[in-house]
From TrEMBL:
Transmembrane segments: none annotated. It catalyses: Endonucleolytic cleavage at apurinic or apyrimidinic sites to products with a 5'-phosphate. This is Endonuclease V. The keyword Metal-binding applies. It comes from Hydrococcus rivularis NIES-593. The record marks 81 as: Interaction with target DNA. It holds the Pfam family Endonuclease_5.
Length: 221
DNA sequence: GCGACAG
DNA sequence: ATCTTGTCGC
């Protein structure tokens, strides 16, 4: 797929904060997506003692969830891991991998937060805004927010609140297994995002999209 | 000032 | 994120 953004990348946390504060106004938290036929998962892994960043993208058919295409790309690591600034470390490599795709995803599930972020601009929002594609943030752990305890059955969820606003949902994707944290990335509502995450999840905790991307990014079997 | 802190 | 085998439970 063709990627447009010639976005300037922050070299310092101060610059990153300014970019987040500016771009967050572009995030659309309502449904603005067409028919979803291709769902993609993106993930990143590191090599050579973290000096190289490798991104992987897996495109699956929806709702069948069959792998249709995948791509990987590596790039020198340029930004450290700092909570709240994950996108500046991972997105450059992700964009490079996305460029290699022939199929343009209708929806992308990201490994990390969307709106559930200190400045409401997690990696899912950043990627979605840059390439103007609907995205959902699916994180394995909490960055910000609190929530009530939720039932152990698959499908149950509770709103995630931070500083007085609902920023996402804690969702049980598998019975008796730790939940995942879902939040809007771009051009989708929270309710719709929860629905897609569940429909992309089969027998494991994580959606098939991110599981496949995960496998590719870490070079496993 | 003291914790908390996606991957 | 990543280093790593077996093992407990549905």
């Amino acid at each position: 797929m063709k990627i447009n953004c010639n976005s300037a990348w922050a070299q310092t946390v101060e610059e990153a904060i300014e970019i987040q504060k500016q771009l967050r106004h572009l995030v659309i938290v309502e449904n603005d997506l067409g028919e979803v036929r291709y769902v993609a998962g993106v993930d990143v892994g590191f090599e050579d003692n973290y000096t190289m960043t490798q991104a992987a993208v897996a495109v699956l058919s929806f709702p069948q969830l069959q792998l249709l295409e995948s791509a990987i790309a590596q790039i020198p690591t340029t930004f450290p891991y700092i909570p709240g600034f994950l996108s500046f470390r991972e997105i450059p490599a992700i964009l490079k991998a996305l460029e290699k795709l022939n199929l343009a995803p209708d929806l992308i599930l990201c490994d990390g937060q969307g709106i559930a972020h200190p400045r409401r601009f997690g990696i899912a929002c950043h990627l979605g805004v840059l390439i103007d594609v609907p995205t959902i943030g699916v994180a394995k752990s909490l960055l910000v927010g609190k929530h009530e305890e939720l039932s152990p059955e698959k499908g149950s969820w509770q709103p995630l609140r931070d500083r007085g606003e609902v920023v996402g949902a804690v969702l049980r994707t598998r019975t008796n297994v730790n939940p995942v944290y879902v939040s809007v990335g771009h051009r989708i509502s929270l309710i719709t995002a929860i629905d897609y995450v569940l429909r992309c999840t089969t027998k494991y905790r994580l959606p098939e999209t991110t599981r496949l991307a995960d496998k590719l990014a870490s070079g496993k079997k």
